[in-house]
Each structure stands twice: as structure tokens, then as C-alpha cells.
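Appendix B, record 7
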Amino acid sequence: MKIHFTKMTGAGNDFVLVDNREGRLRLRPDQIARVCNRHFGIGADGMLVVETEGRQDRIRMRYYNADGGEASLCGNGARCFARFLEPLVKEQEGGRVSFLTGAGLVEATFAGEEVSITMPDPGESRLRQLISTRHGPLEAHWIHTGVPHLIVFVQSVKSIDVEELGRELRWLPDFAPEGANADFVELLGSDRISVRTYERGVEAETLACGTGVTASALVAHCVKGYSSPVSVLVRSGDWLRVGFERTGDRLHEVRLEGPARAVFTGEMEVGE
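C-alpha cells (predicted):
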């Protein structure tokens, strides 16, 4: 069985996108993992699948991590998904595209190479927790931005062993059974931060993570007093921006903006 795909990147967070609006494709987790494998497949942090739901004009994004497991949302993936849809969706009111995800409806707008999307209002958060690690206690902040994230503020993101510490934080029993993505955040001042993320499902550091960027910016606001919009430098060297509004203790109208583009198209044999 062959799949036709578009390889896409959002600030270095890369994806294989497959158009399955006709509903003919049924990929197993092991096949998705093979496609995302960087040595034996196309190579990607995850797979985006275009589907339709109900009426043919209602488009749904399904997102699968590199291990083949499905997740409710991927921020940079959603921005790439919107970029792919831009020329396909005939009725765009004011240049907008909307689609369903496991975390709700996402709306996207475009400005040159930049794609801005709505993000779900953050759900439960647990700030200023003291957690135990092999290297001693750490203050961490848990927040849900479509998927769970654990934020740790550090003096320098360059000095952190993201693979080792990130893997430990990702599997902490405190956040079982689903675990959490781990984000290490350096304050740069003037509502700017630098973020490195260890992503569950990829089980490694990625060059960018949209939900992690969003989570880090919102926690920087709640804990450090940063103001909207927060500019975020990711490992790829790109900058993303997180805008939001606050009413009382509630954060809402959250948006994530940054670059997203198609890299190449092709086809791959994925077997039976």
C-alpha cells in the first residue's frame, strides 16, 4: 500500500501530512511509526491526517505522534494543517480556515509565511509544585493546553540535558497514566522566553512544540508576570508568539503564531 504525502514544517517541528478526505486509508500505529521513522521512513515528529466528519465541508485534523499513538492536539501541527488547507478550502471568510481537532474547533488566519491559530483555553493548572528528581527537588508548573505540559524555569536552556531530565519528568508517577511533556524555560526579559521541549510520543527533544510554547508563555504570565503577547524562541532558532486575554483568573482567546510551510511531496510504500 502506498501513501501520498506532503512533508511540512512549523518552526522545525516536522510532520507527514496525508489527505484522507475520501476515507480509504486505514493506517495502524506501527505503520505510522514506520512512516515517521527518520532512518527507515520519511521522518517526522508526527503525522497529520485530513479527514471529513458529517457534512463534507467539515474537516477534521487527526494527529498521531511519531510512535503511532493519537493525541488530541498539536499546535505546530495545526498550523501546518491550516497551511495545507489554505488553497483547498474554497470558502474562506476573510482568509480564515477552520477545522475540528480532538481538543475542539481551531480557526486559522494567514499573513505571508506566518500562520496564526486559536488554541483551547487552558484547563486545569497546578502551579508551584515541588517535585522530586534524581538530581534533587525542582519547582514545576503543570498546565493543560490541549495536551499536558510540565514547565520548569531554568537559568539557561543551553545548560540543560533535555533528553535525560525531560525523559524523567515525562514519566513521573505524579502525572501518570498519560504523563506530561516537559518544557524548560529561560526568561529573556521584555516578555520574551526561550523554550526547549521533550515531547511524549516522540520520546525525544523536538526543535519546537506549539502546545509547549503556549503552555510556557501562559505559565510565564501566571508565575513571572509576563504580558501578552509573549515571544518565544525555540530550538530551531525560530520565534513564535503567544497572545491571550485574562479576565479575573481565567485565561482565554489564546492564539499561537509562527512560520509554517510545505517542504516537499512524495509517496511511500507502507506495506499491508
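Remarks on this record: Residues 2-119+260-269 form a domain with the Diaminopimelate Epimerase; Chain A, domain 1 fold (CATH 3.10.310.10). The chain has two domains: 2-119+260-269, 125-257.
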